[in-house]
Design a protein that fits this description.
13 helices; six-stranded parallel beta sheet; alpha/beta; globular
């Protein structure tokens, strides 16, 4: 039986960009069995792809803070047993870091990864039995698809297919809604708050409910501040990733900074606008994921609210 183990434990946006390899593998190798190693918080998202047989959760982010804890080593032993349960035709390391290579090394099967000229951390290549040249100047979606294709001897073709099936949305807002994703882990990726205020005011005046989801207490406070005094701007309760996916998939528009949830919205084929101010959309933009998505801005180029409103008129439903 042909099988593949995908090593891409984090981060959210990178996992989304890697997801099309599941469709490619199943198309070019019918009957293939695919498992995926993921950090705990993202396991539920990968589970939305029915082409993945098994998600193997790992907790590197949590374990590193409790290395001397007996509970940490017990959990690691469970992870090792799950990882060694099957022998794989190929173990594909998409993390491009030493931590991903070490996880791949623990698995049973030949490890494939980028060569030294193609990878973020060249030391990781020591673990690989097969090294493949992958142009690092192309979009991450294409890099992942190319590496998986090289590992199994096929050439990826056509647009990316993410095959994510979100759960039903049982608590949709009472009116048509848009979702604005203002939060990101990097401060240099943030869009100015006055711009968000102007955009929220425009869409609520047009009759839309504006949803401002959050993931941490700091983000919740920022959502609350942005919604203050604006009728129709809502700060929803905290949601799991699958429930957030359901919210994004049904939105009339998703607008967000360069962050994982924005990339997830594009992968779900929601009309999406991504706002770049510190990173290059050619390498990680949403336009590569969907024809209904637009990238604005770039390194040192801050999009204006007027540009966002004009782009929204292009991608929104109806």
């Amino acid at each position: 039986m042909t099988s593949a183990l995908i090593i891409r434990p984090s981060s959210l946006g990178d996992i989304v960009h890697a997801m099309p390899i599941v469709h490619d593998l199943r198309r070019h190798r019918p009957g293939i069995v695919i498992d995926w190693v993921s950090e705990e918080p993202f396991a539920g998202l990968i589970g939305l792809n029915r082409g993945v047989r098994r998600v193997i959760p790992v907790a590197l982010r949590r374990w590193r803070h409790h290395l001397l804890s007996r509970a940490t080593w017990r959990e690691f032993a469970v992870f090792r047993r799950q990882l060694g349960r099957y022998r794989y035709t190929a173990v594909i390391d998409l993390q491009e870091q030493v931590k991903g290579a070490l996880l791949a090394w623990l698995a049973r099967g030949p490890v494939h990864g980028p060569d030294r000229a193609s990878i973020r951390e060249p030391a990781a290549t020591v673990v690989y039995r097969r090294r493949h040249r992958v142009d690092p100047r192309q979009h991450l979606i294409d890099r992942c698809r190319q590496l998986a294709g090289a590992s199994f001897g096929y050439e990826p073709e056509g647009p990316p297919h993410f095959d994510l099936v979100p759960p039903p949305l049982h608590d949709a807002p009472p009116s048509r809604y848009v979702v604005f994703l203002h939060a990101t882990s990097r401060a240099d990726k943030l869009w100015p708050e006055p711009h968000w205020k102007q955009l929220i005011g425009h869409f609520t005046t047009a009759g839309f409910t504006v949803m401002l989801p959050w993931g941490s207490t700091g983000e919740a406070a920022r959502s609350t501040a942005l919604a203050a005094g604006i009728t129709g701007a809502l700060v929803p309760p905290h949601r799991s990733l699958p429930r957030l996916a359901a919210l994004l998939a049904q939105a009339e528009l998703v607008c967000g900074v360069d962050t994982g949830l924005t990339h997830l919205a594009a992968a779900l084929n929601a009309p999406t606008i991504s706002l770049f101010v510190a990173t290059d959309p050619r390498l990680a933009g949403v336009a590569r994921a969907s024809e209904r998505s637009i990238d604005l801005g770039g390194v040192g180029v801050v999009p204006t609210p007027i540009e966002v409103i004009a782009a929204a008129a292009t991608v929104m439903r109806g």
